[in-house]
């Protein structure tokens, strides 16, 4: 897809696909145009070039009624009661009144909102508003889920609840796309990740696939101030008493261990793949791993 605003290129040929039952993490810096991409997929914005397809067919208005969307900004009626709002939104998506009430009540219970069902949305905490926002995206039993920063403002318990819900929807065959700056959550939840920079998809794949070219790092906790002076060994980082090393081709990790033991006790010695946060930082800044 492509999108311009005057002379500014917002989306520069971005392209990706999400399979049935897949959790896809959509990450990028502020201003990378993740939200613009989602809005085009939903028909809120028009693309200047490209197309959006679902099940091989071009997305139409009818298709979009089957999408569950959770915007980053609050998209709820602030003075409407929680249960009334969910029923209303379910009916807008085509559910009859009885089914809309059943679905609204089911998601109110599932998301821990039972004690807030007769409250106005504006009187809820930000975390509970976020729960209602998720319920609004789910209440019509969507065939696709598109969530923009769904974990924003949630406490750890609410994060666990939302994570479980997303896993359950994916397990039922629903494609789930969500953006987040909480890269530890993205790494833990997602089957694949797409990294966006300046409107372009600069990396896409599983975390293992994306980090494989960088290779694993050796983490060593040894005597204070210990630094390996060995050919082919490079210090990547020194953090909390640990030294993170990159070993060149042919370097034996046991040689590093011997050097560390010669300086004193070794409390930790293990291989570690780069995290998604490290990968993201390297991709976006162009720094070497």
From TrEMBL:
Entry-linked InterPro entries: AAA+_ATPase, ABC_transporter-like_ATP-bd, ABC_transporter-like_CS, ABC_transporter_ATP-binding, DrrA1/2-like_C, P-loop_NTPase
Name the record gives this protein: ABC-2 type transport system ATP-binding protein
Primary location: membrane
Membrane topology designation: Peripheral membrane protein
Keywords annotated in UniProt: Antibiotic resistance, ATP-binding, Nucleotide-binding, Transport
Key word Transport present: yes
Compartment(s) of residence: Cell membrane
GO molecular function, one term: ATP binding
Pfam families the UniProt entry points to: ABC_tran, DrrA1-3_C
Lineage of origin: Bacteria, Bacillati, Actinomycetota, Actinomycetes, Pseudonocardiales
UniProt cross-references to SMART domains, sorted A to Z: AAA (SM00382)
Top-level taxon: Bacteria
Keyword Transport appears in the UniProt entry: yes
Residue ranges annotated for the ABC transporter domain, each copy included: 1-223
């Amino acid at each position: 897809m492509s999108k311009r605003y005057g002379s500014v290129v917002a989306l520069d040929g971005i392209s990706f696909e999400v399979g049935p039952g897949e959790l896809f993490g959509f990450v990028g810096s502020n201003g990378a145009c993740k939200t613009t991409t989602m809005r085009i997929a939903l028909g809120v914005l028009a693309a200047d070039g490209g197309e959006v397809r679902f099940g091989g067919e071009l997305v139409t208005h009818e298709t979009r009624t089957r999408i569950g969307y959770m915007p980053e900004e609050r998209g709820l009626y602030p003075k409407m009661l929680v249960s009334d709002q969910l029923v209303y939104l379910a009916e807008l998506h085509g559910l009859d009144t009885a089914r809309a009430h059943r679905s609204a009540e089911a998601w109110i219970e599932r998301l821990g909102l039972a004690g807030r069902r007769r409250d106005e949305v504006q009187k809820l905490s930000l975390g509970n508003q976020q729960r209602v926002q998720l319920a609004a995206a789910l209440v019509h039993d969507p065939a696709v889920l598109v969530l923009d920063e769904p974990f924003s403002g949630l406490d750890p318990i609410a994060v666990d609840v939302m994570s479980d819900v997303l896993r359950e929807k994916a397990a039922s065959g629903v494609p789930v796309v969500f953006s987040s700056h909480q890269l530890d959550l993205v790494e833990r939840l997602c089957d694949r990740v797409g990294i966006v920079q300046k409107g372009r998809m600069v990396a896409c794949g599983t975390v293992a696939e994306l980090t494989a070219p960088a290779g694993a790092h050796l983490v060593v906790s040894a005597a204070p101030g210990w630094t390996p002076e060995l050919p082919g060994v490079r210090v990547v980082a020194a953090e909390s008493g640990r030294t993170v090393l990159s070993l060149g081709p042919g370097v034996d990790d046991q040689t590093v261990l011997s050097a560390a033991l010669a300086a004193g006790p070794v409390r930790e010695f293990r291989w570690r793949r780069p995290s998604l946060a490290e990968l993201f930082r390297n991709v976006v800044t162009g720094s070497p791993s």
